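user: can you give me the structure for this one chain? tokens are fine.
assistant: on it. calling the predictor now.
[tool input]
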Amino acid sequence: MGTLAGLWEAAVARHGAAGFLHFHDVDTGDTVCWTYTEFDDRVARVAGGLGIGPGDTVHLALGNCPAFVAVWLAAARVGARIVPADPRATEAELAEQIRRTRPVVGVCAAARAAPYRAAAGGTRVLELTETAADLDDGAPLVGTPRTGSAAAGDVLAIMFTSGTTAAPKGVLLTQALYAFTGETMARAARLSARHRWFVVLPLFHANAQYYCFASAIAVGASVALASRFTASGWRAQAAGLGVTHASLFAAPARMILARDPGGDPLALEHVWFAQNLTRDEYERLAALTGCRPRQLYGMTETGPAVLTDTGPEPVPDTIGTPTEGCLVRLAADPGGGLPHLEVGGQPGHTLFLGYLDDPGTTAAAFTDDGWFRTGDRATVDDDGRYRFGGRGGDIVKVGGENVSLTEVEAVLATHPAIFEVVAVGAPDPVLDETVAAVYVPAGAAPSEEELLAWSAQRLAPARRPRRFLAVDELPRTSVGKIKRFQVGQLLR
């Protein structure tokens, strides 16, 4: 099996003079570019500045910036590992990660240094500006060039899951998995050296690392990295940076559509999106980007998106077919609900290695014959296309009848006064559990009576929400995923 370090070395050798990273600072409007060779020199110097070697851990709490990419690749080339953290995480959250991973050095933004240093305890900390200047000679991160080697089974990252339905787990990701993911996703996106990804999602999350950076490195493509996401500026940035490919979650896509100032359509060749869009939202996004976006499905644990819509004509309400090189199957639900989605592969090579210091949870995540239990539900049609049926926790039993909250949400989202909605289970003294809905209004909130009557015309009795709650915004993870378990708490 290959390594991410090997992919990077090969890309530098074959595409050294070509552009690798185009960093766009949203606050200043400046864009700084490095070729593969130029960035490789920075990576070697960052490895020296970090002072890391094989098996060492670097805790990383940075926004989207060149230093993040350089630290990641520096760790890869010397056989070390990173622990990418949400830079907005609380002191308690950071302290828990640092306690569990025992890094030799922590890297944070100078603007957020006080809580980070408090969380880090006695760990050495480097403070950065999160600008291109972090890679200049004389900067805290930059030292004497250092090289090394890495093996396929080396852990390259401990990535804490975003925790949409439960507390985060530390996912162990190897060099081999990153290499497999990069090569697999490059094929799925038909990526070549002439292409350029546009990355606005946070780098500490799997999407940006897996689908964009790893795939770009696999084929020698370039990446345009924005320092932060701005919905109103997304169109102009994409045009100005000359991007051809983009990856979005549904929530950022909706924000772009809501705040886009308009202008000439883009001419992108490929757009991934995750989580369902309504038909109207999909068509508007297609008109803006100039291509037909394609949905995918993956998890931090799976490496590649194991389901991707790669057919000649995308089908927006499906999550695609099994990605080339990936194994997917459906397992019947003993309770008669929607089937469970399971992923095959070799842990540490084509799947995650396991959960940090948690052999019990790791063992429970796999079936007796070694397939990873995603916890998600799905169906497949006669054409082999999969449709998402919700998380395992997205199924509630109303009076003994299984109800998919995802399906309820799809109906409620068509109401013109609802901008965004989450359906959750709510306790009921008679039925044990019923459906409730928490939503963000598109304008003035309609009355609960109006929504109840509207739902009664479109949903079977067991699927109808018995209660509606309007809120200004829904609780989210850093990449825009809704934290369903926190939504339920709003109803208490």
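assistant: here you go. The CA atoms of residues 72 and 489 lie 36 Å apart. The longest strand covers residues 418-428.
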